[in-house]
Design brief:
By secondary structure, the protein is α+β, with helices and mostly antiparallel strands. Helices cover about 25% and strands about 50% of the residues. It is built from 3 helices and 6 strands, in the order H-H-E-E-E-H-E-E-E. It has a 6-stranded mixed sheet. The protein is elongated.
Length: about 130
């Protein structure tokens, strides 16, 4: 299992997020998307090292672009995602998401698709 698969599985298992959308897409929206939707990207994923060598952990930064037709819809889904992940740890199958921390949000408007977007960054300590 990868850290991406573990995060997506965790989000889809959350009842609050799941009640709003089950549409999570890696890196980009499909050709004709349905909103609201979440697009996720791994910004970085670095193995942790100690003086004795690899620690068995890694630190990944994720960006979730929450896209909805209304500003309120985008903010509500962003809040649900933050509640589902921030400050939490999960074990998915045998894969450990040790610590998930919200790093910040940016609100944007997408003229081309006439939708609102909230970009939310999260840091994740996980099994290497």
């Amino acid at each position: 299992m990868t850290v991406e698969e573990a995060i997506v599985s965790t989000i889809l298992a959350n009842g609050t997020v799941n009640a709003i959308t089950t549409r999570l897409h890696p890196q980009m929206l499909p050709q004709e998307p349905t909103y609201p939707a979440i697009v996720y990207s791994v910004i970085s994923n670095m193995p942790d090292q100690t003086l004795q060598g690899p620690s068995g952990l890694a630190y990944a930064r994720f960006r979730f672009d929450i896209i909805a037709e209304t500003y309120g819809g985008a903010k509500a889904l962003a809040a649900a995602l933050k509640t589902a992940l921030d400050g939490k740890s999960f074990t998915v199958s045998t894969y450990e998401l040790r610590s998930i921390v919200a790093l910040g949000d940016t609100d944007l408007y997408e003229d081309e698709i006439e939708c609102h977007r909230v970009s939310s960054d999260f840091g994740v300590w996980h099994s290497a």
